[in-house]
UniProtKB/TrEMBL annotation:
Residues making up the signal peptide according to the UniProt record: 1-22
SMART domains: WD40
Higher taxonomy: Eukaryota, Metazoa, Spiralia, Gnathifera, Rotifera
Keyword field: Repeat, Signal, WD repeat
Domain of life: Eukaryota
Record-linked SUPFAM superfamilies: WD40 repeat-like
Coiled coil location: none
Identification of the protein by name: Uncharacterized protein
Alphabetized InterPro entries for the sequence: WD40/YVTN_repeat-like_dom_sf, WD40_PAC1, WD40_repeat_CS, WD40_repeat_dom_sf, WD40_rpt
WD repeat copies, ranges: 39-69, 159-200, 201-234, 244-284, 285-320
Pfam families: WD40
Amino acid sequence: MKSLNFLFNSLLILAFVSFLNSNSLSPSAPVVVSSIFTLTGHTQPVYAITYLNDSHLISGSGDTKIKMWFNGTFITDLGSTESPILSLITHYGFFPISGSKNNNIRIWIPKLRNAFVDFSKQNGSILSLATLPRFLIASGSSDHSIHIYNVTTRTFIRSIQSNSSVNSLIFFKQRHLLAAGYADSTIIIWNYRNGSEFTRINGHNGSVYALVMLKNGNLVSASADKTIKIWNVSIVPPVLEKTLTSHNGEIKCLAVLLNGNLASGSTDFSIKIWDVNNGSVITTLLGHNGTVNDLAIDSKGYLASASDDKTIKIWNTTIF
Ligand SMILES: *[C@@H]1O[C@H](CO)[C@@H](O)[C@H](O)[C@H]1NC(C)=O
Ligand SMILES: *[C@@H]1O[C@H](CO)[C@@H](O)[C@H](O)[C@H]1NC(C)=O
Ligand SMILES: *[C@@H]1O[C@H](CO)[C@@H](O)[C@H](O)[C@H]1NC(C)=O
Ligand SMILES: *[C@@H]1O[C@H](CO)[C@@H](O)[C@H](O)[C@H]1NC(C)=O
Ligand SMILES: *[C@@H]1O[C@H](CO)[C@@H](O)[C@H](O)[C@H]1NC(C)=O
Ligand SMILES: *[C@@H]1O[C@H](CO)[C@@H](O)[C@H](O)[C@H]1NC(C)=O
Ligand SMILES: *[C@@H]1O[C@H](CO)[C@@H](O)[C@H](O)[C@H]1NC(C)=O
Ligand SMILES: *[C@@H]1O[C@H](CO)[C@@H](O)[C@H](O)[C@H]1NC(C)=O
Ligand SMILES: *[C@@H]1O[C@H](CO)[C@@H](O)[C@H](O)[C@H]1NC(C)=O
Ligand SMILES: *[C@@H]1O[C@H](CO)[C@@H](O)[C@H](O)[C@H]1NC(C)=O
Ligand SMILES: *[C@@H]1O[C@H](CO)[C@@H](O)[C@H](O)[C@H]1NC(C)=O
């Protein structure tokens, strides 16, 4: 374990440096609206996906496996847990971190096909994860807590308690704040460095499943109430800018496209691409035969979608 620790820490520093040096994205180009790949192999719903170093896709499923894919092809299983995988993030571009239905959080090291096991102290499922600065992560649980951990040392830093399941988390770069979407429809913006509440948003009428930040700094929330809401969070209390309606089901996931527009996935099996300036639907991507649970976008504009139909689809969204 000691040498694993040493190797991990060295890799983490390398990853962090190259992450800092690789933050520019190329502008988007024209056309095409069909899935270019369907990735099959998982034997249960796929709940979570994340891009590793902009090219390799990592997926986590109800079948408890973490799989790695590249360019439409299965590469390898990174491993498996004892429990369905519900959440995934990539830390500094290189290390997938998974959260499970039991209370596991694991940091995976793809090169070694190995993981640091289970440093969570939460009592419920890990429903959401977010990367924070200085090697910290936040994990949101069905036990109503958010925990802050230092990934390098795998140590617990603090717990931020509320009274509802934490479905979604997003870090605000500009303000050093952490927004959390709760099952009771509340959004709370926390100061994660001391655990105090900064402000809260009431406006949804259903579980808040997903949160993303737009390039202009607005916060976007997606809910079981079938709406997406855009909030100006530079004002306290935050101001509702727009409500996007068109999905016929609960909205489970969001992603920001390269040009700043929005993608959303729903229990209506569809993915919608929205123009964030006027709130209109640019197109609806059909093909999944089940709820769309998670979305991820790579630096070339390929959108990956994970579904209850046990597949992942890759879409060419370079036009939007
Ligand atoms: C994606 O779309 C762009 C623009 O139309 C095109 O240049 C590119 O070849 C497409 N990629 C694939 C894999 O189809
Ligand atoms: C990805 O796969 C396609 C065929 O499906 C192939 O034409 C292309 O060269 C591959 N790209 C890379 C980077 O391997
Ligand atoms: C991305 O990560 C995978 C798995 O560790 C590795 O095989 C691949 O070489 C990496 N790609 C880049 C560009 O670093
Ligand atoms: C988990 O449960 C234990 C025992 O019931 C309790 O002491 C602890 O405070 C709980 N932790 C959280 C994060 O709720
Ligand atoms: C996390 O741990 C690493 C290694 O000890 C340290 O460099 C870093 O400052 C810690 N982060 C915070 C926020 O304390
Ligand atoms: C907690 O309970 C209060 C009412 O007692 C409610 O207003 C609030 O939105 C709840 N949710 C969270 C996440 O704090
Ligand atoms: C937490 O930090 C913020 C910003 O630094 C500060 O405004 C607030 O008073 C602090 N809260 C507590 C309870 O220390
Ligand atoms: C909220 O949802 C409930 C049940 O889904 C519905 O009865 C109620 O009218 C909704 N309220 C608003 C303000 O939309
Ligand atoms: C948010 O509101 C402030 C104050 O009205 C305004 O200056 C700012 O441009 C708004 N942000 C966006 C992204 O619209
Ligand atoms: C929204 O804006 C887009 C791009 O400017 C435009 O093509 C579309 O017609 C607009 N839709 C509505 C309903 O105004
Ligand atoms: C879609 O799912 C349903 C129920 O799981 C199944 O009966 C049906 O065959 C599926 N359709 C396709 C096209 O896979």
